Amino acid sequence: MRDLILGLPEQLRWAARLDVSGVPAADEALVVAMGGSAIGGDVASVIAAEAGRRLSVHRGYGLPGWAARHRPLVVAVSHSGATEETLDAVDAARDAGLDVAAVTTGGVLGDRAAGSGWARVEVPDGPQPRAAMGSLTGAVLRVAEGAGLLPPQADALEEAADVVDRLLGGGDGPGVGLADDLAEALEGRVAVVYGGAGPGAVAARRWKTQINENAKAPAYAGEVPEIDHNEVVGWEAVPGLSLDRIGIVWLRDAGDHPRVDARVRVTAEVIDELVTTAGEVWSTGSGTLARLFSLSVIGDLVSDALAARAGVDPMPVDVITELKERLAREDA
User: Which of 301, 257, 253 is nearest to 281 (CA)?
Assistant: First the structure.
């Protein structure tokens, strides 16, 4: 997995070179995707909101009820091209006569796109969608650009690649050392990752899912300021357990709203005696995309380091494979 993480900058540069001139124009977009294929939609929703446009993400079967009336461009993202929920959503989009753009390595989704004449971005093949965040996210951003929803994204992708490159340093950069320190602090603990609304929250979700899949461990994510209205109260229940078995990581972004920055500082002080803080990570870079990737790549590295400490192989996801096989037998 570490080698795949080191390939993230090149994925982003690949996306910066894409030609998406064939994407139909749209006033808004709806990304339909699951798991590691959906994170690109989360990133793009933040970038779109910053540009004053709406890009939503749907994780599930079918389409949300508003889609047939608002008629968004449906961006179907499936690394394998075989994601059950995404294919069902694509069928619903076709039946509703909506424009579709596909982002995939091929598979059934790729075949449907080719057969239907939909816009299609074929991303480089790889072993796991969770290791293709750069290419999947970049492709979604460029598709949204091609639809006229976003300004040109090539420069932002190049900056993100440069920032991640510096953090990785070919496997010996400052981000690697920071991730190893955080993994040491989180070893034997359940990770809880908090980020500010926007880039930090998306990165926190990425941390959670990467620790789940790579380290085969439970992890949870929350968003500031929302946690200040509910979750912080929960740490009062079993402070002994929280101090011994939980580790909070705060993701800090220079672009956070000033009140979010203040809330993070005050919240950390208020819960300090109730739950253990494992550390914090500050974003680097100028643009929103670069800052978001600077936070998320540290989570990728932490998940890999936690897997190494636990003696587990980060690549297979046996429980997911078994779940899919059982569902297939249900359908037989």
Answer: 253
**Could you count the other beta carbons within 10 Å of the beta carbon of residue 188?**
12
pLDDT digits (tens, 9 = 90+) for 185-208: 999 999 999 999 999 999 999 999
DSSP structural state of residue 199? H
Catalytic annotation, pick one of 85, 145, 158, 213 = 213
Asked if 93 and 74 count as a contact pair (C-beta separation under 8 A), the reply is yes
Burial of 207 (0-12, 13-18, 19+ CB in 10 A): buried
Active site residue 229: yes
Active site (annotated) includes residue 79: no
- Candidates 236, 273, 322, 324; catalytic one: 324
Candidates 255, 287, 35, 44; CA nearest to 161 is: 287
By CB atoms closer than 10 A (0-12, 13-18, 19+), residue 154 is middle
The 10s digit of each residue's pLDDT in 250-279 is: 999 999 999 999 999 999 999 999 999 999
In single-letter form, the type of residue at position 168 comes to L
Active site residue 324: yes
Q: Is 71 exposed, middle or buried (0-12, 13-18, 19+ CB in 10 A)?
A: middle
Closest CA to 260 of 204, 181, 182, 191: 204
Query: How many other C-beta atoms are found inside a 10 Å radius of the C-beta of residue 279?
Result: 15
Helix (H, G, I), strand (E, B) or coil at 60: coil
Separation of alpha carbons 210 and 214, rounded Å: 6
Q: Encode pLDDT of 79-99 as tens digits.
A: 999 999 999 999 999 999 999
Structure pTM?
0.95
Residue type, 144: A
